[in-house]
Prior knowledge:
globular, Jelly Rolls, 221 residues, 20% helix, 15 strands, alpha+beta, 6-stranded antiparallel sheet
Amino acid sequence: MNTNQAQVVDDQTLMNTWLEQVPDTVKVAKFVSGPGIQRLKLKFDIDELQSALSDVTGKANYVGEELDQGFGAIPLTQRPGADKFSSNDISGLYWLRPDNRYHEEQREEFVDELVFSEFVPEYRGTYFEYVHQQLIARFPIGRMRILSKAEHCCNHWHRDPEPRLHIPIISNPGSLFVVNNHCTHLPADGSVYFTDTRGYHSAMNGGFYDRVHIVVTLPLR
């Protein structure tokens, strides 16, 4: 048997092995922990989260420079006494490899997360204030934002300076989070998820309606 014939046999053997393996169609609709994505013990009331979202979106519109691309934010924390947010406050420093040169580039400027220490006064009395109180009782946190992602879109493949907490409020089975090589669904059931976004990551919404998460930065200093 020559080299080409051996390669044909090897490929046929591999293909037969793969075809005998039935893909898992159940776990993909659940949370599966892995490197860089874990679930905390802390859990909130999903009905209260969704009710608070309705209250807040009744008062404020999503903001951000990528609204036309399906990405929007509503800040829940601010610099004490602040009355406006810059575009950099909404997004902030990140790195990515934008083209086939594979060279890493910096985008935007560093955000001092620890100065975002005040819960936005307009949303006091909502369940989100309770969420904020529970988080700061446990960890130093920075920006706390409601982030919306429209159907059929995803983030850049990038990395951030700090990890994040995600609290899904509205989700669907096609909404996925990827950190490096681990991909999973984050159900909207009140759970709080640690995502180590210091690694390369992306979020995608392959569903038929918007995905909405609370995203909280965990400062490293």
